[in-house]
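dumping this here before i forget
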Amino acid sequence: LSGISTCLASARSQVQSPVPKKTHLKSISKIYCQAILKIFVLLQTFRDPVNGSRKGTKETVLLNSEETIPQTKQRIYFSCPPQGLLNKVMTNGIILFMSWCLLLVFLGNEVLPNGSLFGLVIIFYSACVGGILLQLIRIPPVPPLPPLLGMLLAGFIIRNIPSIAKHVKVPTWWSSTLRSTALTVILIRAGLGLDPKALQQMKTVCFRLSFGPCLVEACSAAVFSHFIMDFPWQWGFLLGFVLGAVSPAVVVPSMLRLQEAGYGAEKGIPTLLVAASSMDDIVAITGFNTFLNLIFSKGSVLHNILSTVWDVLVGVLIGIVFGVFIQYFPSEDQEKVPMKRAFLILSMSISAVLGSQYIGLHGAGGLFTLVLSFTAGLKWATEKTRVQKLITSAWNFFEPLLFGLVGSEVSVSSLKSNAIGTCVITLCLGVLFRILSTFALMCFAGFSFKEKIFIALSWMPKATVQAVLGPLALETARLTAPHLESYAKDVMTVAFLAILVTAPNGALFIGILGPRFLTRHWDPSKVKLHLPALEGH
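structure:
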């Protein structure tokens, strides 16, 4: 160390001495090279235990290192008893087996093949595996496909393999209740996902995007289904509103990825599509409930319209009252406030949806859920995100059940010979009019030509709402009007095909066209746009 300090002092004196520039540079570089050499020798002294002249210092350093740095544990691959991953797999397997044994003791034949719970568990786990397998399929230039497509195909495969289908049976009322519960969770997430600030900033464009394409697709699908599929006008509009909803499960995660990369963030395109997706679902569900009541309710058309208006008023008013109640109960001084709020919203909403169907107010439960969740979230501010995460956890459980059950409703053997062709034509024409209307409605909104094309193609994916509304029409027809079941089966088939066709194509369009058609902000980290926590919705 003293040699190094001597070299540095000599270099300092050389800098201060009046010498020619060339000699000055040579002397300084020579002295600094000597200092670097001495540092290198010093480091070698500490590292080499044989040649080091400062062995005691080295041993002291090593002793301190051994005391302060923990030893790295060696990975044990084979041991008795097993440890690590093998132990974890065996433990989880034993837990699942013992859980099945306990259910067998309490429920008996329900957990055996041909039992209701056995069929439900098989569909659930098959849907989970299907979603995971689809996520594992990665082609480098192609964006990831939504896992819900794998869940849908898993249920479809189970239904159409006779050796499996005869052992997997789920009661109709179980399937109906689970789908209604899944719809409730979707509505809660839609209500919580509505951002008042984003709606206020882009209210004109957002409302145009929420109402216009949905209504245009519903009307065009009604016309095409009437002339192509021989649907009555009421069934045509019901089919139109089934198709009219966009899927936030596809749109929102894709938009979040683009926003994080800075694409379109400067003009707020991701925020616009995320906020409008929830409103679009609300319009579609409201229109579907209206025509469902018109089809299956007895009485005059005027009576049905008045009953629908009554359902809307009851749902909105009671939703506001309970929403204000949850704003203050539980209070902030309690423990686990987000968990209590999530439980209250879920329990009240599920009770309202199932209870309104029981007493005959079919449209009131859904509107109650939307208004309740939106009103409650107005006062929660930052705590709203925690509640959304808990609701997302509930959705992660119901998502495989929903899409697995929807896939299991479609039987190839029961389809008519020309049903798939007419359903695909009606679906494609309705989606085409939706894309054209979206492009037209985005004119004079400050977007470029490429951005309008991107928004129009991003507004076509369908999944979650179709998975609920299609089977709901079929279930209602089976219970109240069996002679209308043929129309309901066609609605179910179109809903299934809509998910199968538009969900993967929409995800591909967003992932491929986004980086090419949207302007990228130079510093995405400085773009502060509030996006609701709606991933997976």
